[in-house]
Write a structure and sequence with these properties.
five-stranded antiparallel beta sheet; alpha+beta; globular
Length: about 950
Amino acid sequence: AFSELVYKYQKSVHALAWRKIGDFQIAEEIAQDTFLQAYEKLATLKNPTQFAGWLYVIAANLCTDWKRKKRKKPIMRSLETDTSGTLDKTSYEMYLEEQREKKAAEHRQELVKKLLDKLPESERTVVTLHYLGEMTSEAISEFLGVSVNTIKSRLRRARKRLQKEEPMIRETLGNVKLPANFVENIMKKIEKITPTPTANSKPLIPWAAIGSAALLVILLMGTSSQYLSSFQQPYSLESQSETSIEIVDASVVLDMQTEPELHKRNVRNVLARKNEGIGQEVLANQIGADTDTDSSRIAIRQNQWSQVQGPQGGDVNGIFLTSNGELLAVTHTGIYKTTENITEWIRINNTLPTAYYSKTPIAEHNNTLYIVTRGDIFASTDGGMNWTLISRRQSGDTIALLTTDTGFYLVLEKAVYMSVDEGRQWSQLNIDIGDREITDAINIGDTAFIGTEQGLYKIVSGEWEQLPVGKFKKVDSLAAADNTVYAVLSPSSSDISPDDLGVKLVREMLRDETSNIWEFFRSDDLGESWDKITPKNRSIIERIALDIKILASDQTILALGLHRYRSKDKGLTWTKLGTDTDTIDIKQVISVNENTFYSHGYEGIRYTTDGGNSWHLYMKGIIGTDIRELVSFKGQLYTHAINGILKSDDNGETWTSIAVDTEDDSHLRFREPMLTIADNMLYAIAGNYSNNPRICRLSDGGDTLLPIEEIPEFQNVSDKGIVKENTETANTDKESSDLQDTVQYLKDRLNLHEISSMAISGSTFYIVYNSRVLKWQPGFSKWVDTGLDTGPEETSHGFILAASGKTVYVGRKDGRLFQSLDEGKKWTDITTELPIQFEDFDDIIFSDAGVFIATDEGVLTSHTGKQWRVIEARNGRIIKIRRLTVDRSDVYGVHRSGVYRYSDDGKWELISPKVPNTASHLVVHNDKFFIATFQLGIFQIPVRR
């Protein structure tokens, strides 16, 4: 029976080994050893349905062992070192011909290997198994543990990427054949092997009792899942087993934010797998990242949270251009890279602890990359794929890591540390800046420039010196090109002593500095002298300091803020490039050449190839965007991300944008769309730049949001909640208009929106607008204030609203709960009737079982709205559920420990593993749970009913 398994999996195992080793002959030997080891340890396989994945793990481990031994193996003398005199002429000619054919084949194989290396890891694996392993999509699906549609999609994408080279790859890999006696040789060796029984195991009826052959016949018949329980009962909890592997369909495994151990170790790379389901390799690499990990403690679990491939985008902690032209991006989900020849980002590492809202700088020195995470400093010698911990770092917000030949500088917000041994040991520099914070840092050669809230400094060989520019001004940004340094100075908020005030006024007169506006300065002698190069003829609005960033490349300078400028002569003359609200919150900028620049900020990474005239978002391939909302509607997922409302019809793998259809061509945007489903319709709120929100419904085609004309706009609502008639603004002054746009933009960025919640029951719409609860029904000419006295005006996100039938609940963020049983005509404060005290609401939903209210102290429920109780887990513990959802008649809630189901006995029942990150939303879609997280995008797991 085992020979049937060898025959079935021989090509796939060989293909997998070749992908890891790159040598067909060695891969053949590893494939043979894989089957021998599998037979020997067959009794340790607890679940025969996972034989393919188990086989994969054995092959992967053997490949790793071979690579390790190869480094120690002595070099053997080849035939080429022998003289031809030792061979007869005919044999020698045959030998030369064989060598030519061998080299030609090796050349083709090497070319194919390089072509495959261009593919993402997930596509490369599928292509190799398909052409070299001669496996169908269905077979690959079974082998890797992912869906057939996913396999077909990866093959299709790979063929599209390779285009003309695909036939050559198919021919080259297709011509590689295993020996005809491959299976026979293995079976001969198997006859000499005695299978190893499981150590200390306590099965009720061990597999050995029925014989491995019978078990394998059951496996091959595909009926093991039906009949295995008749032979194999669960193991005792006290039993010990051999090393087993957790097989998960996930490119990101749980507990990704685990802090690295203090001891020195290698952090191995986990390539981006785009949900390829090779959980065995992911886990094996993570085990390798910590030398103290006990692999024998890893258990087999089929279902784990897996990360979907979209929406693409997300918060970026840092970008860096390497000396070989590769651009690296650090995000919450790992490190990505791209080059000018690649049209998307490719994740090269997801093991470093980068999932934090903080700057994560990268620097380079002598072909080695260095990265500063929240608690450590790592080094990489292979372009960022693998990292080695070199030291712990001091606490504090990181500004920059500067590398020079005389030493490294770790620049924090309140201190500067220096290392003379490439980052292994650090000593704090004695700098006299008081309580002022450091704002930016760069270096030119061995000279480091440090900008602060009040003054600019430089460091040479550890010596600290203040420079004669902007002594009383804040340094917003620094840039360098060749031996020229540029500085953006703005008004400082730091206190100035009375003694320094007079000095400040004299300096400003003598040095042509102005304290109340931003200015540019340039130095061509490493900071000894400075020239003012501020653009002239700026309007009042343009002079407002809004954290301007400066970039420089050769003679070209770019200044990016709300208003953009460019100079092509080192600041002598300037060109205004217009206004761009997307550049107001730039965190970091990088210069490639005089025309190409990169930046990252609120919306992600953007680039320009025309010297700053136009900017384009470049986030394709990066996953982990900030998901604000997530709903399931008519077989599709809808979400609100940083780049608008998106929908997916393939369980979150790909996403398309949802547009807003307006007759007057006004630009409606989504700030907080509050996606709401009611009466088999999806609703959202959109607003234009003048802040006139509109309620929209999804079109029948599902790709457009249509403003509902019957529902009035939210315009000119006074503090008392009286809806005024629409009035047109007579002031058309450009500067006034610019100021309004700027204020509105800042309100958007700070989430200062008037509408804070929406609920729909039947044809009745409820919203919380400027802290007032308004209602609209068909036939109303305007929104009606329900009269709920909410007390002092809170922040715009101070309420949560839910409605069902005539019942409406309003939860205020100070812990007060209001109830109306007649569509908002009469309100009752029921806070004192509740069995627990709390300060905040997280969610309110209705189901057949009643109303469920999630608070920061637990979930309340009531069937009548009068008697309330707190839901407990079966162990009596109160679970602080963050989000609730209803599917059919079931109520579910998500907590950091996993998804809970509200059971028939009125208790919470845990039905999933721990969630990978704090969940902001929970939905049930296509028999799967989907959670939106604050940092890592969307994850899914099958529903266990």
